[in-house]
Amino acid sequence: MKKIEAIIKPFKLDEVRDRLREAGVSGMTVYEVKGFGRTGGKSEVYRGSAYVVDFVPKIRIEVVVPDALASDVVAAISTAAKTGKIGDGKIFVTAVEDAIRIRTGEKGNDAI
Q1: Which has the closest alpha carbon to 70: 94, 101, 98?
Q2: What is this structure's pTM?
Q3: What is the pLDDT of residue 22?
Q4: What are phi and psi of 39, to 5 degrees?
Q5: ∠ CA(52), CA(11), CA(45), 5° rounding?
Q6: Are 15 and 80 in contact (CB under 8 A)?
Q7: What is the DSSP string of 32-74?
Q8: Cβ(8)–Cβ(77) under 8 Å?
Q9: Are 22 and 77 in contact (CB under 8 A)?
Q10: CB 75: neighbour CB atoms within 10 A?
Q11: Cα separation of 107 and 53, whole Å?
């Protein structure tokens, strides 16, 4: 199994969710997060005064999928979240040793 974490722009969430459903993902966890990358935030002007926004709002999505589905899920997220501009985000893929559904005790792929 693979855990896929994606940091994306907030307005891309609906499109990414729809693509993940099409790819066969049955569930996901979504967080509202803040952060910055290479650009270190952004400058904005409010009532004539410039100020720096150190942390940019983002969405973090987590899904756990069988190994066979991982590359399709990464491709779906990449396609749906891409704007071609700075700050599109990142995708991280890590191995998951085991998963257990608490209610039924199912393990492994059956639990996801």
Answers
A1: 94
A2: 0.85
A3: 95
A4: -75, -20
A5: 25
A6: yes
A7: EEEE--TT-SEEEEETTEEEEESSEEEEEEEEEE-HHHHHHHH
A8: yes
A9: no
A10: 13
A11: 44
Cα–Cα distance between 82 and 72 in angstroms, integer?
15
Beta strand pairing call for 90-95 and 42-46: unpaired
- The upper half-sphere exposure of residue 11, i.e. CA atoms within 13 Å in the direction of its Cβ, equals 4
Q: Which tens digit of pLDDT belongs to each residue from 11-20?
A: 999 999 999 9
Q: How far apart, in whole angstroms, are the C-alpha atoms of residue 67 and residue 3?
A: 9
pLDDT mean across residues, the chain: 91
**Backbone phi and psi for residue 72, each to the nearest 5 degrees, phi listed first:** -65, -40
User: Which residue, among 55, 53, 73, 61, has the nearest Cα to 8 in the 3D structure?
Assistant: 61
**For the segment 28-64, what is each residue's pLDDT rounded down to a tens digit?**
999 999 988 877 666 667 677 766 777 889 999 999 9
Q: Which two tokens stand for residue 109?
A: 């792929």
Strands of the sheet containing 90-95, edge to edge, are: 29-35, 56-65, 2-8, 90-95
